[in-house]
Amino acid sequence: LINSFIIESELCFPHLNSSCRKNSRAPAVSMLIYVILSSMSLLTMVMNLMIIISISHFKKLHSPTNSLLLSLAVSDFLVGFLLVFQIILIDGCWFLGDIMCGIYFVLDYIFTAASIGTMVLISVDRYVAVCYPLHYPIKVTQYRVQVCVFLCWTISVFFHCMLLMDNIQQPGLYNTCVGECVVIIDFFGGIADVVCSFIAPVTVIVVLYVRIFVVAVSQARAMRSQVKGAIGQGFVQRVAAKKSEMKAAKALGVVVLVFLMCVCPYFCVTLESGDAVISASAAAFVMCLFYVNSFLNPLIYAFFYPWFRNCMKCIVTFQILKPGSSDANMG
């Protein structure tokens, strides 16, 4: 759609014969693209920053599940920041130098992998909560979740730094002209990346959520059959607890579904390329689609979670600055 508005080609660096060519568009079209992407970048960072502040500040939100949401919000916030660099690439020109190009792609790979890893952890968390509710408080503790999140980010950083080592050591090695931003991953590295960052995590997520759905349906039927003849405060509390877990599983299931819809095209393009060559300008659409996911997650939280809406209100009205606000109940 964007390319249909291209009217002519110009050099990224007019004074260099070896310069890449850029895609020139009508001023109105260029302004529209920049406004939309800039607004999305700003809103993504602001909304996810609110989630980070909310979960970090309010003590009653310090739960294992919310720790995972915090990790996801951090990665989404950083993705929103990277969208600024994607805006620079809209015209197919990179003006920040080869070193910044390598750093940009390394960070993009790391944040993507960290997001996918966090999604896997969220799926495991909901699986244990729904399928093994009695064991959940013992198996899923705050400390264990924090260790898992730390390992997720550490592995993402190590794996992709090794994967892109050639591009880090020799920035711009694979550029064909001045103003291009390209990284190349060898065949086996590309296969490893697709398997570890896409196929394996997505398989785990889908299998776990299918299992969650089956168990949720069976538990809902059991509750309906028992509630008719059951009385007592204890039973009511157990039913309320199960409904709460189901609601959380449903909300996070929507997050996972939206995530898969946004990230799958990126890896499909990688698989189709065969040689695992990712050009910044050629991959602009699928990368922006992944960035859209980081923008949508806070909106999903706002729709499903009352605590997030309450926290946003508290932050916007500066109630968060009052003494003792960290002990407030945002549920």
TrEMBL record:
Major place of residence: membrane
GO terms assigned for molecular function: trace-amine receptor activity
SUPFAM superfamilies in alphabetical order: Family A G protein-coupled receptor-like
InterPro entries the record matches: GPCR_Rhodpsn (IPR000276), GPCR_Rhodpsn_7TM (IPR017452), TAAR (IPR050569)
Sorted UniProt keywords: Cell membrane, G-protein coupled receptor, Membrane, Receptor, Transducer, Transmembrane, Transmembrane helix
Compartment(s) where it occurs, according to its Swiss-Prot or TrEMBL record: Cell membrane
GO cellular component term of the entry, any: plasma membrane
Domain G-protein coupled receptors family 1 profile positions: 47-301
This protein's record includes keyword Transmembrane helix: yes
Keyword Cytoplasm: no
Transmembrane feature ranges: 31-56, 68-90, 102-123, 143-165, 198-218, 248-268, 280-304
Membrane topology: Multi-pass membrane protein
Family to which this protein belongs: Belongs to the G-protein coupled receptor 1 family.
UniProt cross-references to PANTHER family, sorted A to Z: HISTAMINE RECEPTOR-RELATED G-PROTEIN COUPLED RECEPTOR, TRACE AMINE ASSOCIATED RECEPTOR 19P-RELATED
Official protein name in the record: G-protein coupled receptors family 1 profile domain-containing protein
Organism: Gouania willdenowi (Blunt-snouted clingfish)
